[in-house]
Amino acid sequence: MSDKSEADTIKDIHWLMDILQNIDVGLVVLDRNYEVQLWNAFMEGHSGVSPQLAKGKNLFSLFPDLDEAWFKQKAEPVFQLKTRTFTIWEQRPYLFHFRNSRPITGRSKFMYQNTSIIPLESVTRQADHLCVIIYDVTDTAVGKLDISRANQTLSEIQVRDTLTGLMNKSAWLTVLESYYASQKQGCLLLLDMDHFRDLNHALSHQQCDEILRRIGAGLKTLGDEQHAARFGGEIFSVILAEKEAEEAMQIAEKLRRSVFSLGKNSQHTISASIGVAERLADTPSASEWLSNADKALYHAKESGRNRTSLFKR
Ligand SMILES: Nc1nc2c(ncn2[C@@H]2O[C@H](COP(=O)(O)OP(=O)(O)OP(=O)(O)O)[C@@H](O)[C@H]2O)c(=O)[nH]1
């Protein structure tokens, strides 16, 4: 009877060892000196290190790239307090740098891993070994990262103009409303390219795109606090925060000259007209303020283009 149960036990252990070897997670048993006591087939398959080679070796000399300080800071409390610890890929993408072997998540070069470290107690109830369990979570991680990248791109598209990287019109109008509500002084600037239709014909559409891109880059140098946007097509808008009319006109003139200089080595004239409107004590709304800037722009166009006009009642 007792013989049979011993045979059964041996059979059970044999099965367990089979499961440990073939299970689709990495299993590593380490002793107090971080020497490998068990290394299963998953670990062999992904690292190329056989159990025979791993057994008895110090983990950090087997894998010099492994972050020893970080790992020990996680593992020491497991030995001392006999509590398990879990690290997810979002905290640390992997413990062992294994190549990603999954065909559908081939976009990731390495295997994302969740890692558990659990204490293994001896008969004297001391945690003198621990077991590291490695879960391959590459599919989940890549899927989640793709979604969050797509969301980020979407929210960028919602507020950014793709050609210049400036704010788009709807984002800028929201900023304008809140700037107006803050009661702060400032000036609005509208910059509209002159005869851009003709320029598109004379040059190429791509060259004209490049002109718009360079104007966008110039507006970015004003700094984020000046809230520049591509208002649409070949029109740009800027809130010159806390600037009085005189200073705003100087900035506008500088911009106009820099647009004009884009054509200095070309046989074509490149120029812009600019309208500026100061926020006056009685400007009744953000849209009225914008309409004043538009009137000034119209005046600049009517007066011959390539000039800057300040709104006057
Ligand atoms: N290359 C390029 N052209 C654009 C873009 N957006 C608008 N345009 C062109 O800008 C031109 C604007 O034409 P209009 O509104 O008639 O104005 P304009 O020719 O600049 O004339 P004025 O404003 O009266 O000086 C159109 O031909 C548009 O196709 C763009 O993103 N890239």
From TrEMBL:
<dbReference type="GO" id="GO:0005886">
    <property type="term" value="C:plasma membrane"/>
</dbReference>
<dbReference type="InterPro" id="IPR000160">
    <property type="entry name" value="GGDEF_dom"/>
</dbReference>
<dbReference type="InterPro" id="IPR000014">
    <property type="entry name" value="PAS"/>
</dbReference>
<dbReference type="Pfam" id="PF00990">
    <property type="entry name" value="GGDEF"/>
</dbReference>
<dbReference type="InterPro" id="IPR043128">
    <property type="entry name" value="Rev_trsase/Diguanyl_cyclase"/>
</dbReference>
<feature type="domain" description="GGDEF">
    <location>
        <begin position="184"/>
        <end position="313"/>
    </location>
</feature>
<dbReference type="InterPro" id="IPR013656">
    <property type="entry name" value="PAS_4"/>
</dbReference>
<dbReference type="GO" id="GO:0052621">
    <property type="term" value="F:diguanylate cyclase activity"/>
</dbReference>
<dbReference type="GO" id="GO:0043709">
    <property type="term" value="P:cell adhesion involved in single-species biofilm formation"/>
</dbReference>
<dbReference type="Pfam" id="PF08448">
    <property type="entry name" value="PAS_4"/>
</dbReference>
<dbReference type="InterPro" id="IPR050469">
    <property type="entry name" value="Diguanylate_Cyclase"/>
</dbReference>
<dbReference type="InterPro" id="IPR035965">
    <property type="entry name" value="PAS-like_dom_sf"/>
</dbReference>
<protein>
    <recommendedName>
        <fullName>diguanylate cyclase</fullName>
        <ecNumber>2.7.7.65</ecNumber>
    </recommendedName>
</protein>
<dbReference type="GO" id="GO:1902201">
    <property type="term" value="P:negative regulation of bacterial-type flagellum-dependent cell motility"/>
</dbReference>
<dbReference type="InterPro" id="IPR029787">
    <property type="entry name" value="Nucleotide_cyclase"/>
</dbReference>
